[in-house]
Amino acid sequence: MTDEVILQVKDLRTYFYLDAGVVKAVDGVSFDLHKGETLGIVGESGSGKSVTNLSIINLIQTPPGKITGGEIVFRGEDILKMSDKRLREIRGDRIAMIFQDPMSSLNPYLKISTQMIESIQLHQGLNKKDAKAKAVEMLKLAGIPGAEKRIDSYPHQFSGGMRQRVMIAMGLSCNPDILIADEPTSALDVTIQAQIIELMQDLTRRLGTAVIMITHSLGVVAGMCDTINVMYAGRIVEHGATNDIFYDTKHPYTQGLIKSVPRLDRDTDERLFSIEGQPPNVIDLPDCCPFYPRCHKVMDICRQKYPPLVPFNNGHCVSCWLYAQENADSLNPEDNKK
Amino acid sequence: MLEVQDLKMHFYMGHEGIIAGKKKYIYAVDGISFTLAKGETLGLVGESGCGKSTVVRAVSQLYKPTAGKVLLEGKDLTKMSRTEMFTARREMQLVFQDPYSSLDPRLTTAEIIAEPIQIYRKRGFLKMSDAEIDKQVEHLMELVGLSKFFKNRFPHEFSGGQRQRIGIARALALKPHLILADEPVSALDVSIQAQVLNLFKDIQKEMGLSYLFIAHDLAVIKYISDRIAVMYLGKIVETGDYKDLYANPLHPYTKALLSAVPIPDPDVERKRKRIILKGDVPSPDVQRPGCCFYDRCPDHKDCCRQSQPAFVQPKGASAGHKVACFLFTE
Fold first, then answer.
1. B222 to A192: CB separation less than 8 angstroms, yes or no
2. Could you tell me the residue range of the domain that residue A36 belongs to?
3. Which of A45, A180, B263, B304 could hold B291 in an S-S bridge, CB 3.0 to 4.6 Å?
4. Residue B25 pLDDT level (bands cut at 50, 70, 90)
5. Reported pTM
6. How far is A169 from chain B (nearest CA, A)?
7. Residue ranges of the alpha helices (H) in B144-183?
8. DSSP designation for B126
9. How far A109 CA sits from the closest chain B CA (Å)?
10. What is the distance between the alpha carbons of residues B259 and B237, in angstroms, rounded to a whole number?
11. Is B138 part of a structural domain of the chain?
């Protein structure tokens, strides 16, 4: 990980306009991604993790969705203002994606070779023979035995773990700057998950790729991420280095999340901590802290205004009134909100 | 309470060849035995395709087992007539994985929870007035942490966690003694998963239930179970008390499985050594002469390929900690 920022997301807002109301799926998300960094985005279903990442490569379906505000600066260029042609050059080449379900993201009618060669030829200008050689090389790197033969198989001839390896090989074949992995291991068994995570870590480290890892598993982020964004109801509630998030947890939601996971390495007969209540209904959220109905440290102000982002050491920042009040003198919440 | 002896469940998959070819089977569950005491929770873990769910269905007689015995309070379920089965089912209820597809979308919450009672009342097994049923439904909803004002709502109006609570209330409606829970928390978010796991524990304490609890998440299984059975390819490879099994795993598969689970603690996670298994779980369409784990096992020996290891308690292991592996037999 270096200091060079390759992706900057500034105040991103992605709304979905439905008959029932406006869903603010992503509502003011900002973060930086450095070269070679592995950033984890954790949160529960509906917290806006996936929409954030689809917005980064401008893949939001319009209508009903719309990116209503913000900037996504990739190497000095705003992705949201790019022409379609320029976008196509970047997608798959500089920014690649891996999705949760490899079966539905590979074309079942086409051989793996056809699908891999297509993107390599398109982005790297190689002829078909060289592109195929490159594809075989990537499959070998991804640990597919007999890659020369297997490249001519169809997706259904692979198992789930193998398909995910193909996706990783495909994603990394153009040596992208950023790899966005949307729950890449959630559909896999633990032993296969361990294989895939090891492979991703190994390959991205070797190629110097920055990774945005979306997951709901705290165990996965603990093991592989440098920094973590915790999302709740479309906003980042806490951001920081992995150690700060786990050992110096500030936000009551993050605290609850970490405590509510049963741990394999602990012998306790105690009751599991649980966050009371249900995740918020994301339609027409009021402009206050969305976590207040479930928070055990709720204060009056939480019901009235959205908390500002309070910075701590080492890039660790938290959006919670608990800390905003302590810093009330040095920070003007109104300014920060903008 | 429940005793399963040498249970086998093979699915017929048609012939090989056109005229008189060999019959093909999927050997989903291939000879497993276990017991479940009153008030106890037995956790069944394993990866997808190892036969966990088939065990639940074969035990509850939703599938007719190919061979073996399922004794519920001493009576063999596999030999029962329909009416006998009807009475036996009262004792044994199921909770399913997917709270979206396991609730009838056209029934209200109260109707869903009361449905088992209605069925038994219609056939004369239960005598309850409508008012009593209504009271019972309210009581059940309270028990699982749902407000009784939600009685007339439909499943789509609830979140995943709340739906799973409805599913649990329905399973409790006939006051069973045994709950078979098939991955009841794997479709839920972390914070909701903790709520539902606590609910399972609370109900167990209150009603003295026994659980056969299935999950693929080893941490969840550890939290909820008293005893654990690890399955691989239709067989149980190791059983033991939850503490022994996690502190001192014996079977190479259990070791690999435990080491593969990510732990939500960065320091611990960075220091851990993983045993990464090669390859995938093989297809259960052949009956192997040797150990089911042979081709992925890091410590396999020659004898593993030829014959099946016995299920034994090795020397020095705690009581009830058994393993099927040649590393522990002479």
1. no
2. 5-94+174-337
3. B304
4. confident
5. 0.84
6. 17
7. 160-172
8. -
9. 24
10. 17
11. no
